[in-house]
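Incident log, structure service

09:12 report received: a user says their structure output differs between two submissions of the same chain.
09:20 pulled the input from the user's history:
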Amino acid sequence: MMNHLHWKILAPILFLLAPSGCKAPLNSQASTIRDILWAADWSPDGQYIAVGGNHNSLLIFSGKDFKLLRKFPLENTITKLKWRPNGQLLAVATQISASSPFILDLLTGRRIELAGISPDGARGLGWSSDGELLAVGDNDGQLRIFTKTGAFVRKIDAEQKAITGLSWHPSGNTIATVGKQIAIYDFDKDALRTITHRPEGVLMLCVTWHPSGRFFVTGDYGDFEKHYPPLLQFWNARGEKIREIERSKAEFRNLAWSPDGETLATASDALRIWSKDGELLGEGKSEGLLWGVAWSPDDSKLVTSSEDGEILIWNDRLRAIERFRP
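09:34 re-ran on a clean worker, output below:
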């Protein structure tokens, strides 16, 4: 397990890609839309790292020596990747693509296409804690539930213009979704409630429940033209705000709790690590804005993907120990 003392030492699709009026000041001039790697996820057994974005392929790297193992052709754009908690299946969300979101069996290479997703694609993705159900939030604001075999279960209007992120409760059947507001869906009761996260109506991009299930965290885009800073916000299970942090100089693209629940990683202008109480514990710099972030299952490393197409492996002191490009 990670030694946490180390931390102490140290067009609608176009709108979704770059919301109007929310330009961050740190974007690399050398990077292009084709370079962007939106998502990265480490498999629960530690064997694989999945990475995707605008590179027209799904990339599978070794989680041990970080060598490229498999490359699945896939026309633009992979927006989110989620390994099934207890299996070899990988859920893949897409947009601006001829391919609908799908479930991939890594061992056989078989794809299960998920039916009924908006033609504009999807960005929200999350498995239930037992891995039996998959939630997909699309760019029309619809939340769809599928079984692990891809069978359709239910569709819910999440009262969002688009669902840009979602997180399934770690022990229950409650799904938190984000877009222009927070929408929390209770699968068992088939009930939805919404929360306004800030008066400016700023787009949120990511949400994650804490492993305890007692609270969740959201990260938003901010609006630099209107001088609205990006915010990291903590919410209890009732949907009441308990903490708000203004620190990033760019939008929060993705959030990930360490498997032991002690630290939260955020991807924005830097890789930042926070305690579960919101204390900043460490910061790792990157040349490009970070988009994807995930922990290794033993808490010892992180992987990030960036707007300029770079993949970095970080150690527990937030030092980049490997860097490579597809």
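09:41 both user submissions now match this output. Likely a transient worker issue. Closing.
09:42 reviewer note: Residues 1-30 have pLDDT under 50 and may be disordered. The CA atoms of residues 61 and 67 lie 5 Å apart.
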